[in-house]
Amino acid sequence: MAKDAGGLTSRAEDFPRWYQEVVAGAEMAENGPVRGTMVIRPWGFGIWELLQGELDRRIKDAGAENAYFPLFIPEAFLGLEKEHVEGFSPETWVVTHGGGKPLEEPVVVRPTSETVVNHFFAKWIQSHRDLPLLVNQWSNVVRWEMRTRLFLRTSEFLWQEGHTAHATEQEATDYAVRILRDAYLDTIESVMRIPTFVGLKTDRERFAGAIRTWACEGMMGDGKALQLGTSHELGQNFARAFDIQYADESGARSYVHQTSWGASTRLIGGLIMVHGDDFGLRLPPALAPSQVVVMVVRADEHTDRASAAIADELRSAGLRVRIDDQTAASFGRRAIDWERKGVPVRIEIGPRDLAEDRAVVVRRFDRSKQSVGLSSLLAEVRSALERTSAVLHAEALAFREAHTTSVETLEEAVEAAAEGFAVLPASEVGEAGEDTLAGYGITVRCLQRADGSLPGVDEGDLSAVVGKSY
RNA sequence: CGGGGAGUGGCGCAGUAGGUAGCGCGCCUGCUUUGGGGGCAGGAGGCCGGGGGUUCGAGUCCCCCCUCCCCGACCA
What we know:
This protein is an alpha+beta fold. It folds into three domains: 2-275, Bira Bifunctional Protein, Domain 2 (BirA Bifunctional Protein, domain 2), CATH 3.30.930; 285-400, Rossmann fold (3-Layer(aba) Sandwich), CATH 3.40.50.800; 403-467, Translation Initiation Factor IF3. It is built from 14 helices and 23 strands. It has a seven-stranded mixed sheet with strand order 3-7-8-14-11-10-9, sandwiched between helices. A five-stranded mixed sheet has the order 16-15-17-18-19, sandwiched between helices. The longest helix is centred in the C-terminal third of the chain and has 26 residues, at 377-402. The chain is globular. The protein binds one RNA strand through residues 3, 6-7, 16, 24, 31, 35, 87, 90-91, 112, 141, 143-147, 152-153, 157, 159, 207, 226-230, 262-267, 297-299, 327-337, 339, 348, 350-353, 360, 441.
């Protein structure tokens, strides 16, 4: 029966349905009352807060400072950069009324903030001494979407968007790549434990208004790709549109070179689809709102006291611990609920264990159980958390490798992309090839060197990673 | 926007010769149980998406409208 695995549809049976059931069953999010909107519940938001903390620290390490720009943007701003407006006009929400009356000038709800940020950059940047200007904001953005899916695509979503201005194109390129690597790639690999392809986007996939887009791409559990973070070089496009000029040492005026980059709550969708299994979510310890749940099997004074003591010990060691003493609910029900939420380690404490000064440690990643002496509990939990982190990455990497095929021709790529990614010489694709692939629902996810590393600007002889995507 | 489907307790659904609205899960109370979705007993909760029509009588038949979901085109 399909419902054997903790009440969820199996991934193999119906992956999209499994995804929705995990999002709902783990109490992460649900649809808002307005089409395409999302309510992020405490468990989902707790994951986001941890992820946000990791990204924020790395962004600050890269020198950017946080700021905040308004939600409402004058409609006229959007039109100032030609490609940008063409790219975003179809997805904007426009406010036409306020205070019960039509607005004299309609206001756009930000789909992204390049325009309003650069309006201010023009004021703030006068001299080469004002550069580089490195600003990040955490915010919501709103876009019209045809079809929405919780976390993966919603009309309103949370993200961070960075905006920078530099004196030279080289500096801008370096910074865009630095963010991609040090903030995004590092967070996705070492915190989220998702194996990641990095590379350059083709012109077709480039951000509206950018000259180059760099991206992190992950493979989901169904073989499809998900873009996990992008970093754009805007060249001088917005600088010209918003007249952002600086005076160099000699007093000559030049337009700045810019970048913008973003990562969103979509990352949570990726987390689910990469690590989840038929029993629900599996969280990497770094992103688990509770890393350990101490389950009281049966309530009495012994188990209550013991579970509190264990929780204290683990907390003192810096772990996020939660006690589940809701013994009015059955044991099985509670075990399944925590499993679905993806808590990495469960400790079960009942009279049987306490009689021997032991506890049962359950690892979520393989659902293995082990009876452990109380004195070595902390060490066992730590080791289980480390194993979790290592295994999640290893399993995801093995899956991606098993579903990535090196091919030589477009025809072979189409065939291989039915199962996952195909990697082929970029020269075999080209713009015409991209059109062909698009006919099969396949896109070029990124261009990279043959060894998988990031290419340089205008570098030839690249490989194209292609596949179906979310 | 094109093609398909659905609106009935919180969730998932059943409900056609039109005749007083049901089931599972969840929820509340009590007892019992608790080592992988417990058991028994009692209980609460519905303008059947909206409006009009046919009829003695409409969840069910007719007309109009609204919303949502799935597949495709757009996208972090």
